[in-house]
């Protein structure tokens, strides 16, 4: 009779037969949160600032219209935002200038994006029909 191979012998608690060394993890089978994050496609960008915006950080006001804008940028489109910025930073002209420049940058980006896409409105409308 042939000698039994090690695969035929049932393992008892005394021996440790495994494919990896002790302390070594099998990275092929473990899925870390980083790997899951890297496997997902990036979320669409904010219309005004261009940063990726997930559904958690998307403005609920604009999401009803299917417009992807992050919460910080959505505040810039509120009626009282400019007044609030000027009144809270009126004593510090550098801070006021910085806030106004940020708003102008976001408005400019949105305007450029809308001007660019307006060139293709007819093709987009035809494609949607």
Structure commentary:
The chain is 45% helix and 0% strand. The longest helix is centred in the C-terminal third of the chain and has 26 residues. 8% of the residues are buried. With 129 residues, the chain is mainly alpha-helical.
Observed structural traits:
6 helices; disordered N terminus; mainly alpha; 129 residues
Largest sheet: none
Share in helix: 40-55%
Mean pLDDT: 74
Rg from alpha-carbon coordinates: 28 Å
Helix/sheet category: mainly alpha
Order of helices and strands: HHHHHH
Ranges where pLDDT stays below 50 over 5 or more residues in a row are: 1-26
Number of helices: 6
Which word captures the global form?
A: flat
* Beta strands, count: 0
β-strand percent reads under 5%
Distance between the termini: 77 Å
What's this, in brief?
With 129 residues, the chain is mainly alpha-helical. Helix content is 45%, strand content 0%.
